[in-house]
Amino acid sequence: CVLCGRTDDCPEKYGEKRTFVEYNLTVHYYCLLMSSGIWQRGEEDEGVDGFLITDIRKEVNRAAKLKCNICKKKGASIGCVAPKCKRSYHFPCGIKRECIFQFMEDFRSYCWEHKPVQTFIDEESRGASQCTICLDLVEHLPAYTILKSPCCKNAWFHRECLQYQALSAGIFFFRCTVCNNKDKFQKEMLRMGIYIPERDASWELEENAYQDLLQCYQHCDIRRCLCKKGRDYNEPDSKWEIKRCQCCGSRGTHLACSSLKSWEQNWECIECRSIFAKSGKYSRKKKRSLATSEKTDGTTCLMEEPSPKTPRQSSGSQRSFLLQSPKRMYQNNLSPCSHLELPSSNRVTMSLSPLMLNRNWSLRQKHLREQRKEVCNILKELKVQVNTKTTRLNINADDIWNSALKGFRQRNFSPTNTIEINFTNCTNRPKTDTSAASKHHFFQLLMLHLQNSSLFEGSSAKNLSLDFQAVKENLYFEAGKMIAVSLVHGGPSPGFFSKTLFDCLVYGPENVKPALEDVADVDVAQTIKMIKYANSLSSLQSTIHDCYEFLAAAGCLRPITALCDKNMLVNDILIHHVIKRIISPLESFRQGLKTLGVLEKMQMHPDAFSSVLCHKPERLSAETICDLFTIHPSSDVKEVKGADFWMGYLQDVESGESVVTFEDILLFVTGSPSIPSIGFDPEPTIKFLRIRYPIGNRLLNSLELPITKTYQQFKNKMELTIRNTLRVESE
C-alpha cells in the first residue's frame, strides 16, 4: 500500500486492497478514507471511488515527510483531530495502538489519548455477560475491545464481533441484536469506530441464496400409495397432485391416495392429527340430522387413509367439493365479506340444499364449456394468418425462458410462421417425436414458467408485478406476445389471470376497481386491513400515523375527519398498489397481447376469453373424452359392441378402476396430455378394426381400437398397450 507501506491483504481490518496496474498504484481502502489531506473531488466512477489519482499522489508525497509516532517510520498520512495534538500514524499502526477512526462525516481520527470512550455506571462495570453475537463471555470493562449497546442496558459486544457483523449486514440491516434498534445503535457504533458499508447485506447479494426455501415438499407419505409412478410423482390439476399437510407442510399425499375430491380440501398428516388429539382440539364431525350426512360431507376421508379396496377417485369428479364448499364456509364462520357476499342465513340455506348446488354447478360448467367452444372457434379464425413458412426454435427445456426469449427475438421469427420446436437437451424431450407434441410441450413449459416468474404476483389468481429490470428489458411485452402466440399456435392457455388483470386488459385500468385479494404483498395487505377494519376515528388516525411514510410515497394521504373516510382511503391504496404502480408493465403486456390480433378478440369477446385466461382447463372426464373423439364412419360397429366397450372403459377410467388416466389416453393418441384452447388439428377420431392391439396415430390424432368379444379383453388390451407405450417412451 502506497500509504501505509504494508503488504497485508485483510479486508476486515484495512479494507479492500486495490491495485491499479495502469497507475502503478496499490492502496488499502481504509488508509485512503482516513488520510487527513485528501478528499473525494471526483465522481464515484473516477479514480478510486472518487479519489483522483493525482490527489492520491499528492497525499503520498505529503505523508512521506511525516513520521509515524508508533512505528517511527515515514509515510504517516493520518493525524489526530484533537486540538493541539500533533500525533501522526499509519492506519494499521493506529489500529494496533487502539486509535479510533470514525467512518462518517469528516472521517475523523483520534489518537489513543484523545479517543472517545463510552461512559459506564459503576454498577455496569462489574461482572460479565454473553456477547450476543459470538455468545462468548465479555467482561463489563471500559476497554477498547469491548462495546456496550446504547439502547439496551445488558447488551455487550466484542468490538471484533461487531465489525464482522457490520461488514456482513451493511447499513440496511446492521442493528442492535437485542432490541433491533437501528438509528441510535448505528450512530453510537460509528462514533466508536465501527465501519458500516453502504451496501446491501451479504446474504441479499448472494445469487440463489434462498433457493432451498423455494423447494416444496413433494412426496406421498400415505402408507398405501396408489400411484403407479411412485411416491414422488406429482401432476398438477389431477388426482396425482400432491397435497401437503395444512399444519406442518412437511408431509404430503396424492389426492387420490387420501380420497380427496379437490386440492382445496384440507388435509392433516398423522403426526399433526395425533398432536391435536392429545391436546383435545381435534374431534370427529358429528352426524347431521339434515339432508346432508357424513358421507356427503366428505370430511371423514380427510382424517383416515383409504381402505386398500376403495377404488381410486377420478380426477374428473369435482362435484362433491362444490357441494360441501358452502357448508365448510358456514362451519368456519366466515365473515359476511366472504367471496359469496351472502348473509349467513342464506349460506345456511345453501348448505342444506345440495341438489340446488349440484344444479348450479352443472349450469356453470356447461356455460364454461360453451364459452371455451366459442374461444376455440375464434382462435381457429386467427390461425388463418399462420402460413406454411417454418421458423425453427432450438429450446433448452432446463432454461426454457432464456431459450424461448432468444427464439422469439431472433431476426427471422414471425408469429405468422409455422413454429417447429427442437429440444436441444435430449433428456427433456416430450414423450413423442411429432412436431405438434413438441410444440405443445414447449408452450406448456413456457406457460408454467410465466406463471411462477417474477413478472406476476399472487397465489393462484395472479396480477402483474413491478420488476424494474423486466421493464428495462421489455420482458412484459415478450410475455404478452408469448401468450398470444401460444393461444393461436395450439399451446395451452395461461389460466392464471386474476379477474382484475383481465378487466384491466379488456376494459382499461381506469375502469377497474381492484379488491383486497389482489394485493400480494403481505405488509401492504395488512396495512389496508388495519385501515379498513378500524372501528373508531382515533384508531384510524393512529394507523394512518404509523404508516405515514407508506401513504405519502403512494400519494394516498388525504384528510381524515370521519370514520367513513377510511373507505375512500382504502380504495386509493388499492388503485395505487394494484393498478397505478404497474401501469408501465401493464401497457407493455397489452402491446404484446396484440400479437396476431388476440387482444382485439379479447375485447370483443370478454366472457369467452375469461374462461381460458382466468380459469384452469376443465378436468378431463368421460363426457369430455367422448365428445372429443368422433367414431369414424367406416368402422363397422353395428355388429360389434366396440362403441359400448369404449364408453364403458371411459367410465372405468373416471371411477378410478383403471391404471390408465384420461391424460394417458390423450398422450397416447395425440402426444399431448391436455386439450389446447384451439382444439386439435386434425380432430381426434376412433376406428374399430380387426387388429390385435390399439394403435395411436399421432400424426392424424387417430385411435385405432381392436374388435373384441368381451369387455374384459378390450380393457386388458387398452391398459397393456397404453401403459407400456408411455413407459417405453418415458424411458
UniProtKB/TrEMBL annotation:
CDD domains attached to this UniProt entry: ePHD_PHF7_G2E3_like, PHD_PHF7_G2E3_like
Domain PHD-type: 1-115
UniProt KW Secreted keyword: no
Domain HECT: 665-731
Pfam families registered for this protein in UniProt: HECT, PHD_G2E3, zf-HC5HC2H
GO cellular component terms attached to this protein's record: nucleus
Region (Disordered): 287-320
Name this protein carries in UniProt: G2E3 ligase
Taxonomic superkingdom: Eukaryota
Keywords: Ligase, Metal-binding, Nucleus, Transferase, Ubl conjugation pathway, Zinc, Zinc-finger
Compartments in which it is found: Nucleus
Annotated SUPFAM superfamilies: FYVE/PHD zinc finger (SSF57903), Hect, E3 ligase catalytic domain (SSF56204)
GO molecular function, one term: ubiquitin-protein transferase activity
SMART domains named in the record: HECTc, PHD
Gene3D superfamilies: Hect, E3 ligase catalytic domains, Zinc/RING finger domain, C3HC4 (zinc finger)
Lineage, opening ranks: Eukaryota, Metazoa, Chordata, Craniata, Vertebrata
